[in-house]
# Entry
Amino acid sequence: MIKTDILIIGAGPTGLFAVFEAGLLQLRCHLIDALAQPGGQCAEIYPKKPIYDIPGFPEVLAGDLVKNLMQQIAPFQPGFTLGERAQTIEKQEDGTFIVTTNKGTKHHAPVVAIAGGLGSFEPRKPLLKDLPKFEDKGVAYMIKDPEVYRDQKVVIAGGGDSALDWTIFLADVASEVTLVHRRNEFRGALDSVAKVQELKDQGKVRLITPSEVVRLTGEDHLDGVVINRTSDPASDIHLETDHFIPLFGLSPKLGPIADWGLEIEKNAIKVDNTLDYQTNVPGIYAIGDVNTYPGKLKLILCGFHEATLMVQSAYQRIHPDKRYVMKYTTVGGINGFDGSKKEAPKAVVKSID
Amino acid sequence: MSDIKIKITDREGVLHVVDAPTDMNMNLMELVRSYELAPEGTIGVCGGMAMCASCQCYIRSDHHLPEKSDDEEAMLAEAFYVEADSRLGCQIHLEPSLDGLEVTLAPES
# Structure
């Protein structure tokens, strides 16, 4: 069981900054995120795009913002449960919570802060008949263990970075890799496109473009796919394969959090914006894009503000008897849990003769 | 005022004729959101970067629209329910020449 003071669900910019504000109050945080890396949308969807409305940054790439936040919170040693989705929450008799992920990891904390953005990112599934029937029987939407594909025949569909990257990776693992995409053009990092071109020229991977997988075949387990070439729609190609991996990106879904007994409005969690961004369940807060209140704006800078106020309220909940007044970092410095110390340099007081 | 009329058929098949400002640097996706013609969280997910296709729509009138950018082409090539007249609403900037434009929102996916 992972124990912490504030359990943050969602490791996007808002969740990450909450770690900093909590650390100033000597509260420890642990974050859960369905994605494999911290940063949320900033890291997953638009790491290379600039943001212009972070106060103090005339321009910052979303990926750099995440990098900076990770650096800023490092002294406060946040814990991470990545690649797992928060599934259930159970309120204990003492008012604390146990949150369990889809993989069974349990987290125990007196305060839960949902910073889930638009929800957890789920793979987008193509509209193919029989697709659900073959899930885990030849069809997978993400690659967890590449060894599964050793010496197997694999068909990958998609035209983005993940389709390219896995094609490159599996070229050395699988016995046969076929990449199917609706266009001849791929959208990905330049060197991945070049690498796939090279592998194709060497005959190590097969590209079938522009085309689309239109049907799956097999009895209990997938044994092939039917591919329709855009240039010749009349003649379908039947390709034997052991695995079909459609990689069409991710789309956010509020998911299991919607069943936690929280008041939901417009796919977002209602909170008290006059005070501390607490939900209708005391001890559960919602900050950033995942919450809603009159006048709500889904901006990173608003998430930062909400995180700051949330943490003050969480402190009072965790330490009801302690008195506390907010202290400026310039005055108090940063005292990391790792023993690191940052403080403003003392001014020199010296007479001038 | 420099409003134009846009006819939007929502995902339930209901037609809405709405006034659209052309002086607010708005696009079609934002127009749909401003009138709440699709539930929040199901449209404009990426905020308008042509990176999610949640604002896909079908153009039902013969208005002249700007060419698709590479980003829009690429996104539509990975989207579902794509038709010949599919566009991403976030890439269609509202301007006076679009008066009377008719669009249908694509299903959520």
Observations:
- The mean pLDDT of chain A is 94.
